[in-house]
Amino acid sequence: MSHPIDDAVRDLIASTDPEAAAILDRERDRQEHTIELIASENHASPAVMHAAGTCFTNKYAEGYPGRRYYGGCAHMDEIETLARERAKELFGCEYANVQPHSGAQANMAVFMALMEHGDTFASLLLQDGGHLSHGMKLNFSGTYFKPVHYPLHYKEGHAQREHIDYDAVRKVCMEHKPKMLLCGYSAYSRQIDFAKFRAIADECGAILMADIAHIAGLVAAGEHPSPFPHCHVVTTTTHKSLRGPRGGLIMTNDEEIFKKTNRALFPGTQGGPLMHIVLAKAVAFGEALQPAFKTYQQQVVRNADALATALTDLGYRICSGGTDNHVMLVDLTARNPELTGRDAETWLEAAGIICNKNGIPNDERKPMITSGIRLGSPATTTRGFTEGEMTQVASFIDRVLDAGLKGDDARQKETEAVTADVKALCAKFPMPGASPAAV
Ligand SMILES: Cc1ncc(COP(=O)(O)O)c(C=O)c1O
Q1: Please, is 193 exposed, middle or buried when counting C-beta atoms within 10 Å of its C-beta (0-12, 13-18, 19+)?
Q2: Is the pLDDT of residue 345 over 50?
Q3: pLDDT of res. 146
Q4: Which residues pair with 64 in a beta bridge?
Q5: For residue 267, is the peptide bond before it cis, meaning its omega torsion is within 30 degrees of 0?
Q6: Whose CA is nearest to atom 3 of ligand 1?
Q7: Catalytic-residue membership of 316
Q8: Which among 133, 189, 224 is the best mutation to test ligand 1's pocket, defined by most ligand atoms within 8 Å of the CB?
Q9: Same CATH fold assignment for domains 55-288 and 299-428
Q10: Quick one: average pLDDT of 146-166?
Q11: pLDDT above 90 covers what percent of the chain?
Q12: Is 94 a catalytic residue?
């Protein structure tokens, strides 16, 4: 049961390209009938989704509002200004650049703007919850700049196990004097203390950058402390908890940093902005400014907590002891040492539950195997799940993994049963904009 505009778009594509339409059909069907637990994904509203499919895709608008390299940009200026103003209101900052094609592009522009080739910056390791654009060897950030990493508390039994070790952050920063200190993560379930980071940055003379890609929706709704006024520069994606189109955003209160990052983005690292996406960003920011968005984010946090609690009750270990936000890392080995993230991801997908394998802090297994999975609540909350459904999802997960440990026959049987349960649940909670199917 999908949205009438989705159906019309699908029919339009089918009328000229049945081959592409058939693939679209399969993906629509997959999204509708599976439970999306990937923490970095969400279901954008029909208005956001279809804003990205408008005539704005036809337009070149290199430059910024009022200073373009092409004619015919009057409405590009209007929409980019609207998106900027809404972003500024949403995050409570002075300047916003809405042109980054993605989160990694936003980060690249900030690095290029505020550091020289070879400069040192401090960040969290990828395997502790950082992002590849925070210093991974094969990424621009690790190739052209020099990362030093600060640790978590790793000791078993430590009350703050797998939380950021702020004393160690300070120690690393005082030793290496990084040009930039980076906070904000891909798989960290605790609140970030931006004021503490700022105190450390000031002491060691670093620029403080926050990449709030994951928690942007929570921050916008006041469900996670804001990086402003503590951080000098803030980047985010727009498509995760913020529930916009795929894209990036750079924000600051500092005019000089705004000018530098603008130049580093265009012409530094990007060409023409994706103006259809800028339109969709404006629409998404408009949605995020509505009171309903706060209610949604409050439920995102409650749902993540309900899922984490239910999994803990079933014998899994949630890294850091739980979650304050939308995401959690599940240590599968607490449930059974034989369980791997790779198997769990594959087995769960076969039953219609979508997640990603993820290393846990100090994971002894390789990144393609892992001891954990990362789960998040933004997409299921968009569909309307509340705590009861999240508890049910935990039991689906455990049924599949438990059967998987018993062998292929047991797994196949349980996969069929859970798939039916997943489909029934999804039918009760249709995709945004669609009406519920009769169940
Ligand atoms: C913290 C963080 N920063 C940046 C990104 C990169 O975003 P994108 O995939 O849009 O480049 C991600 C994506 O997962 C992320 O988690």
Answers
A1: middle
A2: yes
A3: 98
A4: 67
A5: yes
A6: 213
A7: no
A8: 133
A9: no
A10: 96
A11: 96
A12: no
59 flagged as catalytic: no
Give the C-alpha separation, 79 to 273, whole Å.
12
Class of domain 299-428: alpha beta
Indicate the top mutation candidate among 123, 131, 219, 234 to test ligand 1's pocket, ranked by most ligand atoms within 8 A of CB: 131
Could you tell me if the CB of 356 is within 6 A of ligand 1? no
Annotated domain spans of the chain: 55-288, 299-428
For the cut 60, the answer to whether the pLDDT of residue 437 exceeds it is no
Q: Over the stretch 350-365, which tens digit does the pLDDT of each residue have?
A: 999 999 999 999 999 9
CA of 237 relative to ligand 1 center, distance in Å: 6
Q: What is the mean pLDDT of residues 264-285?
A: 98
Q: Give the containing element (helix H, strand E) for 120.
A: strand 120-124
Residue 251: name the closest of 410, 88, 103, 42 by CA.
Answer: 88
The two tokens of residue 422 are 């997943």
Given this structure, which CATH class describes domain 55-288?
alpha beta
Return the structure tokens found at 350.
């076969």
Q: Is 32 a catalytic residue?
A: no
Q: How many CA atoms lie within 13 A of 80 on its CB side?
A: 27
Please provide residue 415's backbone torsions phi and psi, each rounded to the nearest 5 degrees: -60, -40
Is 345 a pocket residue for ligand 1 (Cβ < 6 Å)? Answer: no
> What mean pLDDT do residues 250-269 have?
98
Question: What pLDDT does residue 127 have?
Answer: 86
Give the model's pLDDT for residue 436: 61
| Tens digits of residue pLDDT in 184-239 | 999 999 999 999 999 999 999 999 999 999 999 999 999 999 999 999 999 999 99
Q: Does 211 qualify as catalytic in the annotation?
A: yes
Report yes or no: 355 and 38 within 8 Å, Cβ to Cβ.
Answer: yes
